[in-house]
Amino acid sequence: MSPSPFLSPDAIRAAFSAAMSAMYRDEVPAYGTLMALVADVNEATLASQPTLRASLEATETLARISEERHGAIRLGTEAELAMMRRVFAVMGMFPVGYYDLSEAGVPVHSTAFRPVGETALNINPFRVFTSLLRLDLIADEGLRATAEQTLARRQIFSDAAVALVDKAERDGGLSREDAGLFVTEVLDTFRWHSEASVDRALYARLHDAHRLIADVVSFKGPHINHLTPRTLDIDAVQDQMPSRGIVPKAVVEGPPSRACPILLRQTSFKAVEERVSFPDENGKLQTGSHTARFGEIEQRGIALTPKGRSLYDKLLNQARASVRPAPDGSNADAYRVALTRSFAEFPDDWNAIRKAGLGYFLYTVDDAVAGARGSDIESLIAAGAVRFDAIVYEDFLPVSAAGIFQSNLGDDAVQEFTASPNQRLFEKALGAAVLNEFEHYAGIERASIERCLAALKAFSDAA
Ligand code: OOG
Ligand code: NI
């Protein structure tokens, strides 16, 4: 077989993720500080928790930790979303899940572009939370039309980027050289532009309608608005942020701190105020400021089954019904207590989580000799032949995402929209259906069980 003439999508994604991280470190220096803090905390955590290290080794996910991050962008039009899907596909990233944020007062709906399948995820799990602005939620019709016209005039992809996507689709991949060009050209789309494309008056009108609308409509492209490294101990990072000159958001989003981490916990530092300029009618630039870009960290835990997820949703709602976290942090301690109390109902032991069918696990052969006579997975586990490790949650959480959006939109910006999920409309714009996250995890779990049974059968047949 002759070697493939193409660089793999996984390698293109890894290169793109590294280039994006370097660009963002230049643009927002606090992100670099955060990365250094996360690296220190991860190292200390691995040194003090040998079982965590063993589990990451067993699932072959240790190497990816320090490379791991997600980012987020907000797009303005259906055409931008459809093209973005094609761009991400070249990097082996596909839309997973549908998130309706209108319910939380943010006029967008979203998906996450990410690698799918165990191998691709282990090579590089880079993902991008991608939102589409919903102009249909702007009440002022005149402003909506102006916003639409402004967005229709911009072209966020370079001609060269579009040509390379066409080529990749036509030929089935990109050569190493083309892949290098592709990374450079596509990175440009995510770059920060300090010169707005609207005048100050229009910016102000958009901003009054919703800060997020101003962020999407006023600029030449969908600047990356944050990057998020993965930490193994989010509480330690949250505690240490101030000592490195970073001010964290009031509370950590998601489940409470637990022995067995579930889903996703996230916190961020507030968006930085940046100088921008607005062209006036004579083309002269007037200075102003815009606040949008921030940094975030996250700790990922086990992916939950639909049963586990509905228990999570119930317990989170219960905690938030008793203490609603105030943006100024004044009731942060009370919220933490309410959360911990509510989640006492969620088993905090890996085998209990597994036995209750609440989470997904990866099964691997630990000791083939011990399993010589077993044939079902439970007796193989009991005999010590098979070990199980949590499958990491690769997706996002709508309530957490809303909390992250809010803390960076200015905490006074909370606004009500009628909840109006519209996955069908989103998928029409995207030009494809989004994948179902639960099916994805169930497939990984099932495949790991089949691999164990086949390996142990081969072993006992040979013995
Ligand atoms: C996206 C916020 C959501 C997360 O980690 O939940 C997000 C945004 O602010 O554009 O990134
Ligand atoms: Ni994020």
From TrEMBL:
GO terms for molecular function: dioxygenase activity. Its cofactor is Fe(2+). Its EC number is 1.13.11.93. This is 2-oxoadipate dioxygenase/decarboxylase. SMART domains: DUF1338. Belongs to the 2-oxoadipate dioxygenase/decarboxylase family. It comes from the Bacteria.
